[in-house]
Amino acid sequence: MYLEQLQIGYLSTQMSSPLNLDQIRQPVARDMELFEDKFRAAMRSRVPLLDRITHYIVKRKGKQIRPLFVFLSAGMMKEVTESTHRGAALVELLHTATLVHDDVVDDAYERRGFFSINALWKNKIAVLVGDYLLSKGLLLSLENKEFHLLEITSDAVRRMSEGELLQIEKARRLDITEEVYFEIISNKTASLIASCCAVGVASVYNEAAMVEKARRFGEKVGLAFQIKDDLLDLGNDPTGKTKGVDIQEKKMTLPLIHALEKASKSEKKHIIGLIKNHSHQREKVAEVVRFIHDKGGIAYAETSMRRLQAEAEALLNDFPDNHFRESLRQLVAFTVNRNK
What 3-state class would DSSP assign to 45? Predict the structure, then answer.
């Protein structure tokens, strides 16, 4: 019965909500335009090298989903303020710092189609740039005495670090349970979107209960976002070839975890052996993907994602009914229906 209600709710969202990011941004379009300049100003340095690198960071920005969550969450409660803009910049500064450091740790030379900072300026400079961005975020809050916003975002950075380390620890044996998986993605991915929503509300509305409810809403969205990433990696690109990057990198995703739970002991041993020893071979990756499909891993993850979407939308009902809230609802739908 619950699944039927979930599917009806999903179809209703699909029919009533335009999943176009420009339309979703409309209530805060002006704030999003201003944000780029304010964000660039927040990164400004008197060191020419740093200025060149931070200009490059701004130039390669993505969809700016995180600031969008901040502004829509704030607007849902009250008018967006300068504190909201600083909160959005704080989130983006801390998040960008973690990405720069992640690229160094992972030896990654590309991000979103652009060369990474470490690819262009080497690891030493990349680490220092990450440190600089982190310090700028901290100072932005301290100088304006917005300790409540700093507390929210600092907790997210702590959780992101813990989630990454927990994943590294558990991934060595490929024995991650569903419970551990959700602990990892709650910390690694969901904590940041949760902090965006909490920061947005906290920047304009001083009530702990509503800030916490916004945090919980963002957490649900973040969990659904990560499961969608898991599913996208098992989908087909325009050439019809499976991506399977997570399998190649030996990452335990929800579809794989569920499939392994449904497998016999011998099947499980075989698949784990393929991932551990043959994940560099395209045909072996394809075999693992077929196994995940056959054991219902895709359908199970899709259902879990839709449940989280419904729970997030239910939490939204406790907030003021306005066009900001409707855009947030559409942003949740966009998050789980995107194709990349």
Answer: coil
CB-based contact 305:336 (threshold 8 Å): yes
Cα separation, 201 vs 149, whole angstroms: 10
Q: What's the CATH number where 269 sits?
A: 1.10.600.10
In Å, what is the CA distance from 180 to each residue of 130, 137, 231, 260?
A: 29, 31, 18, 15
Report the distance separating Cα 129 and Cα 2, nearest Å: 48
User: What are the tokens at 11?
Assistant: 């179809």
| Residue 169 structure tokens | 């620890």
Q: State the residue range of the domain holding 122.
A: 2-337
- Rounded to the nearest angstrom, the gap between the alpha carbon of residue 152 and the centroid of all alpha carbons in its chain is 16
Distance, in Å, from the CA atom of 267 to the CA atom of 252, rounded to the nearest integer, reads: 16
- β-partners of residue 236 are 242
Name the helix (H) or strand (E) containing 114. strand 114-115
The model's pLDDT over 128-173, given as tens digits with 9 standing for 90+, comes to 988 998 999 999 999 999 999 999 999 999 999 899 888 888 777 7
Report the predicted TM-score, pTM, of the whole model to 2 decimal places.
0.86
Structural domain count, the chain? 1
Name the nearest CA neighbour of 96 among 66, 133, 55, 150: 133
3-state secondary structure of 236: strand
